[in-house]
Structure formats: structure tokens, C-alpha cells
Amino acid sequence: MENRRIILIALLAVTVFFLYQAWQDDYGKQARQQAETGPAAEGAGQGVEVPDSPMAPAASGRAGSNPDVPTAVPSMRANSASVATRADEPMLEVETDVLSARISLRGGEIRRLELKDYPLSKDTPETPLPLLSDGAGQYAIFQSGLATAGDALASSETVYTAANSRYRLAEGANQVEVVLEHEREDGVVVSKTYRFGRGSYRVGLEHAVDNRGSADLTVSPYARFVRNEGLVGEVPKFVMLFLGVGFYENKPGTDKYRFVKTSLDDLEDEAFETRQVDGWISILQHYFVVAILPRAGTEGVYSARPGRDGRFVAQHVTAGVNVAAGAQERFVTDLYLGPRLQDGVKWVDAEGRIQEGSSLDAIADGLDYTIDYGILTPICEPLFWLLEKFHAFTGNWGVAIILLTLVVKALFYKLSEAQFRSMAKMKKFAPRIQDIKERYEGDRERMSKAMMDLYKKEGFNPLAGCWPLLVQFPVFIALYWVLLESVELRQADFMLWVNDLSAPDPYDVMPVLF
Question: How far apart are CA 312 and CA 305, in angstroms?
Fold first, then answer.
């Protein structure tokens, strides 16, 4: 009777799960398609209208700062004239060994960024995954500029000029620079420089102001990602994926930082705005992250909020800095636009030299928290370390997973043995336990006493089979998260028909064998 009840509950749970999955396919997909073909998709490449950003923080205390002058950050509203020309606006093409990008001369925005080592899907290995894009249902772009009191010194409507239309990382060079310039009517010259490095997903961004005018300026650089909920690439079935903002927040009243995640769905109720020194802000999706990484010691306001047309904004605004008439000022911010790597991180430093690190933490403090294992991190990290060692030895992630599983099983062998022994005893005494239940039916006190006497006499603990399972459970859940979060397993071949370790078995052979 008990077994039948358990089987029925299991069947009911499986049925509910597949009903939910079917509902998501039928109705959730419709909702996403409607969003993709609605105003957000039709306006791909247009300015995004969001609520006006708040006042930027007061001056940072650097030499020349003016704490009495507030600085307003421009909203992303676009007038009708700019909207009409967005589709034909001039674009710059940038290519390195790992990235290809398209930068608009209007605003100097990164409107498309492709990861050359990460195909869009297993079926189209020649098509790189567009991490940033403003078309085909996905809207994810990067904007930056310079704000001043009452007006933008450089915004998404600023039209820049560039020396070339195509930039390619030269043979033997470590980085390629893309310099954009704009001279205002008041004589102020602003420039924006992107630096792309060899083997690097870190992109340098520098704004420069040459104040040739007659008045002092208080300038606040800002950087922001704008995106909708459209996902790109293959989305694993039966897996709940996180899509949202990751913020490295200074814990109030301390000098310590913590990683805070907010899904895009929750930003409507959990929008935030925080002023602090250091930290970073990012948008996370499965396997990948785009992040704004201000230089150490930078004070500014971090914020994230919903915009319009189903879009969301994650932004950093640096504290205002005074640029006197005749003076010049530079503002440097880094970006990370790529996979959430757990090893083998490369970037180019300020002197143009290639550097390597063992984790994303080498690029910015706390950036490896974007690989979020939660409370199981102390277990997950050693598991991935061992998995990586097995991969280095075998050259096959599937074989590495098998070896790791065998090692974990071997470590828990004695616990598993105790568990199975307990289960065998439970099966052996099942008839006698059932006899006690029938004999004392209606008298729970006498039934409990008779069972305790039986357990004492036979030296049998019915809970002995549970404790080993409880000890092993966190480890196997941690192993699941390691396999789910590791971009290294994305589209990785195993053998035979299993050619993507991040996707379900297409023929369900492995689950049946299990």
C-alpha cells in the first residue's frame, strides 16, 4: 500500500512537471514572441525611453572637484529624427581573436558583440553567439557618455567621427584601439576610446575631455547596459536559469562587499540605487556576464531599474569632477563582456601586456561571484577543480565527469554501504513490522513500544539508512550545480550520439540506462 502511494505521488509529480513544461512552450513562448515582435523589436536600434536617471553623486573629492554642482545624467529618450536614422547609422567593425563588435558612431554605443569561440548553437558552429545585439528579438546594448549640469556633454545622440571604419587586431599586437571624437560648438572636444585585447574579454573604455571653452565644467561619466528579457542561444530544457542584475555591494556600515542578485522580473519591485566607492554592476545570463568595472577608488552611484518596452537598465554614474577651462581630464572604466570562466582568464594591462589569472577575480575583486553556487560554494569549487584536472588528463569533459562521479562515490562508499545494509535490514524486518502494525492497530502507544523493543532486540536503527543519504545529498546537489554553471561544458562533445554535455540526451538513452 505504501509503495503504491509513493509511486502514484511520483507519477503525479512527473505529470504536473510535464504539464507545466507544455504550458511554458505554448503560452510562455507566445508571450516572448509577442514582446519580440512588438515595439521593442520594431524599434531595434532606436533610443530607449526609460525614466530619467537620478542626479549623479556629488564630487568625488579628487583635486578640482566641485561638490556644490550637481550633475544630471541624460535619459535614453530619442527624438523622432534620430529614430528615423537609426537603421542606417554608420557602424564601426572591430575584430580580435575572440571578439567581433559593431560600434555605432551615434553615441559610440556597442550595438553588437559576438563571442567567436562560442557558437550560437551546436547546429550552427560557424555562427558566433551575440552577447550584445539589437535585433531578432534580443535587445542588449552598451551605452556610455559624459553628463554635466543641465545637459549632456556626450550622450547616445552625440555623433562621433573615427579614423577608420574597420579595426582588426594586427598580427603580433596585443590590443587594438578604437578612438571616437566629437567637437562641440562651445569648443569642448570629447573622445571615447575602446581598447580590445588579444585573448581578452575585458574591454577598456576611456572618456577624455579637452575643455577649450571659456567656462568650467563638472563632468560625470556614466556607463549602462540596456536589455530586454530576450535570451540568445540554446536554452536548456528542464532547467531554471537566472537572468538579472548582479551587484557587488558595499555592506552598509562595513568595509566588506557582498554579491547581490536581482532577477529582471523582480526589478519592478526591487529597483535599487546605491552610492558607494568601488564595486561593480553586471547583467547575468546562463554561462555569460556583461559587467561595468570602475577603476579602484572610484566613487559613484549604482542603479538598476525597469525601463519601457520591456527593457531594463543597469548603470554606474561616477561622481562629478571639475574640468577647468583650458584643462583636460580622462576617465577610465573597464568592461567584462564574455563567459563566466573559472580558469584561464586573460586580459591586457594598461601597458599593453598580456596578463593571465586563475579566475575572474583577477580582473576585478569579487567578479568570480558571478559563478554563483550559493551556499554550496565550498563544495562546488573543489569539485570543479577536480573535474578540470580530470579533463586536463583525459581531454574529454564527459570522461572527466564519469571519473569525478566515481571518485565521489568512492569517498562515500562506507556511508553508502551502511545505507544499503540498513535498507536490507528494513526489508528483512518488514513482515514483522507489518505484523506489529496490524496487531496494535488503533493503539499507537503500544505499537510504538513494540517496534522499539524489536529495534532494540535486533540491534536495528530504522534511521540508519537516512543519515548517510543526508550527508551525501549536498555533495551531489553541488555536483549538479557545477555541471549546470560551467560554461566549459557548453556544447562539449562526449561520444557517440551525445555531442553536447549541456543539453539533454536527444534520444533519452542515458536516462533509461540510469
Answer: 6
Instruction: Give me the residue label for grid cell 567584462.
Output: 336
pLDDT tens digits, 331-348: 999 999 999 998 888 888
> DSSP secondary-structure letter at 160?
P
Residue with cell 559593431: 102
Bridge partners for 314 per DSSP: 225, 304
- Residue 66 contacts residue 138 (beta carbons within 8 Å): no
Contacts of 34 (CB under 8 A, 6+ apart): none
Tell me what the mean pLDDT of segment 279-287 comes to.
93
Find the farthest-apart pair of alpha carbons in the chain and give their distance in angstroms, rounded.
101
Long-range contacts of 423-428 (CB under 8 A, 24+ apart): 423/465, 425/458, 425/460, 426/462, 426/465
In which band, very low, low, confident or very high, does the pLDDT at 76 lie, cut at 50, 70 and 90? very low
- The single residue listed with the C-alpha cell 537572468 is 243
Q: Is the pLDDT of residue 329 over 60?
A: yes
Q: What is the CA radius of gyration of the chain?
A: 28
Could you tell me the pLDDT band of residue 43, with boundaries at 50, 70 and 90?
Answer: very low
Residue 61: what pLDDT? 37
Nearest to 208 by CA among 59, 315, 61, 332: 332
Q: Which three cell numbers stand for residue 422?
A: 540498513
How are beta strands 151-154 and 288-294 bridged, if at all? unpaired
Angstrom distance (rounded) from CA 155 to CA 144: 7
- Could you tell me the pTM of the whole model? 0.79
Rounded Cα gap, residues 151 and 487, in angstroms: 42
Beta bridge partners of 114: 100, 130
- 236 C-beta neighbours (distance < 10 Å), count: 14
* Beta strands 166-168; 91-95: pairing state: parallel
What CA–CA distance (Å, rounded) separates 310 from 307?
A: 7
- What does the pLDDT read at residue 57? 44
Is the distance from CB of 249 to CB of 260 less than 8 angstroms?
yes
- Contact between 502 and 401 (Cβ < 8 Å): no
Calpha distance 161→24 (Å, rounded): 46
The residue written with cell numbers 575602446 in the block is: 194
CA dihedral 260→264→269→274, nearest 10 degrees, is 40
Distance CA 455, CA 462 (A): 8
